[in-house]
Input
Amino acid sequence: MRLGVRIFAVVVATLMSGCSGVQQQPEPQATPAKLVIATPHREEMYKPLIKEFQQRTGIWVQVETAGTPLLLERLANGTLEADVIFGGGVDSLAAYVDGFEPYRSPELEGIDPAYCPEGGEYTPFSTLPLVFFYNTKLLPYGTAPDSWGELLTPEWQGKVAFADPNVSSSCYTALCTAIVAQPDREPAEVIDSFFDCAALQSGSARIQEVVSDGSYMIGIVLEEAAVKQSKLRHDVDFLYPSDGSSALPDGTAIVKGCSNLQAAKKFIDFTISEDAQRLVVDMSRRPVRSDMSPKAGMLPIERIKLVSYDVQWSAENREPILARWNMLAAQGEGLR
Amino acid sequence: MKLSFKWRVLLGCLLVALIPLLICSFVMVRVFEVNLRSQTWQSGELQIARVNEELGRRFASYEEAARIVAGDRLVAELLLSPDELRKNEVYLTLYRATDKLRGGVQFQLYDKQGVLRYTTDSAPAAMSLSRYNGVLRQAADNRDRLAYADIEGERILMRCAQAIPDGSGGIAGFVAASLNEQSFAEALGGLYDNTSTLYIVDSFFEPVYSNSMNNIDSAIASLRTSYLETGTLPYDPENNLSYHLAVEPLSGYYLIIEQPAQITGGALELMNTISLGATIVCLGLCLVVSLLLSRSLTKPLEQLSSAMERVKQGEFETRVSLDRTDELGSLANSFNRMASDLDIYMKSLVQRQQELDDTRIRMLQAQLNPHFLYNTLDTMKWTAKMHGVPEVACLASNLAVILRRSISSERFVTLEQEMEMSRRYIDIQCIRFSGKFTYVFDIPDELAECYVPKLVLQPLLENAIIHGLRDSDSGYLYVYAIAREDELHLSVTDDGCGMDSDTVNSLNSGKYELREGHLGLYNVNTILRMYYGEQYGLSASSIEATGTTVTAVLPMRREVCEGDEGSNS
Output
């Protein structure tokens, strides 16, 4: 009897064991070298660069996208799972230099030293002047405000397309630029008037869209976006504020303690290499290499009035400036 | 492990029904599933091999065409110093080299600045390409072979290009081919199943082509992540997708075939459920059948068993009635017969017991106070002697002795003692029938110590004297004992008128019944039979008018055996 039970059990076990399902799979290959990049850039911006980088180095790149402040916040928390932060205005990056691994690329020789931080915590990539972008059907030539002083007045209350400086680094830069460009006004007053004039959009990418489609007359955008739109459409134009704009570069930084340090360094080298900067030029951005000029048709940088923007000052005062803005926003909520 | 019969039947039924069913259904399902999976796998591998082969063939043909164009001196010359008037010669070369290859594939010639000069396309996708990045850069870096690049955001999906040497180590320009979705579809259309999805990706898993272009990006993104992490493509059990991977050697592109499972998890589950259901139904059926079967066996057996119990208790009228013609029915019939036989036997036992009791009662009733008898007879004897009548004294004293012996409790006496009694009896009879007969006792000494029932001879003597010597004036009586093996034969022979043949025969047959006037012989016969058994008793032989011999046959007993007593006295 016992023997019979045993045989039965063996048969049943054999039948049941196969039920889990053994799957044939392809043979696993060796896992290739990889690099994880976190970037606030748009896809049409980073894709060609990354493809080129992969092609040349054989390193596989994984891309994560998020807004600059979010990435930096995660960096501060230690929850950022990336090797490199690619993008973000340097005034934002400067506030978080402790989280970056300093690296001086050999390619830095060709870079304007004004753009590079002393400690080498981040490497500039492209420079981004701020412009006033306006719809020429709604604001004919000559009627658009041509300076911060003209723009930030009650006349333009609620008419300037803008985005939340907490989230968009370019908008934060604009806010700081407006403060620096108007030394005769109190910063608090500038912030207040800016807040009054601003019509907040969901993101900085929307600003150019809502000006182009006529929802708003004017907006503050980076030169690159304005140039692209101007090429596509005949009813938009842009200008550089006469009391001074800023042309902060955006940068690339290696996350401290990342797992693919060598690959990260190679990436930084690539971003400021000639070929990469050529791509930058093709995308209507301004290169950081001193031996390269921007795309034909764009104003040379010397001809743009720039304020002396202190990145350090901007980084240190980030909290109080944003705190004031947020207080105004909360009051505004309460009023409505 | 001791199981009752009912459980053994159930277990047997279960084993017989369930094991084949389980084996069949589950084995079948498993075998089917494994077979199907294996077939699907084989088919996937075949598909991907076909696609790979065709793609490789095409790429090889482009390589060949590029080689021809790149080697053409005229082309190089006219790219370096363009001449509008000789354009057609270049086109001729171009078209000839790419003969049969231009189904959806366009060929271009770029100069060394990357500006488009010649194209087979009527609406070219790009008027110039960057020399520093992209496919032209790759072609410049790797001379003499095609560089392959996938293209984002334009109408075309990929471009391959080769540098055209200028004869002195530099580059005169580039020959390129561009492929769009249609060219891929046409080339690879029938080579894989409609149900499979084909992905062509470059060596970094950037998507190039898929037969479902709409969601290529999201699909590839997840595959890419998996490949980066594990070096292999996943098996997606949730969606039942399996992947095949192959590498096209010329371009380094990966080909991925995504196959849906031929049989969904749901279908398999259904089959398993059905098997399970069938098993449960079988189980139920087994239970029912086995219960019925065992009931039909155990119920009659219980009936028989309880009937036997009742018979054991003494209810001999118990009968079992089973309405069956099978083995159990015949068993019941046998039981019934046995019970009725037992009934009869017990009744006859009871009857014999009763007869014994009756006899004893009669005996008891015959008993009178012995002392009264002895004293009276004694007085008779002395009075007779005093009055000088010796015959009366003799009668009285003999009678006293005989009575004493017959009343005493012992049931067996020695033969010698029995003879003593017989003599006294005969003495009495002699006085009654004075002078009418003579007698002889012939007892061997060695038989004198045998034990016989008390007063066994007396009825025989009485029968001989009264019936045999009835009509004689002088008769002869011969009493003798013979040992025959282990039997003792006591015979009384008279030479009287003889016994009628009826009585002789019935005595000999052993079926001697009580008849009027033969009570003595009946008693002796009964006593002998009851003490010793049916094979003993009386026998007789007689010759009419000559004589009769009545013989009592009993076993030889040298001591009194308790076993001879039929019941307690």
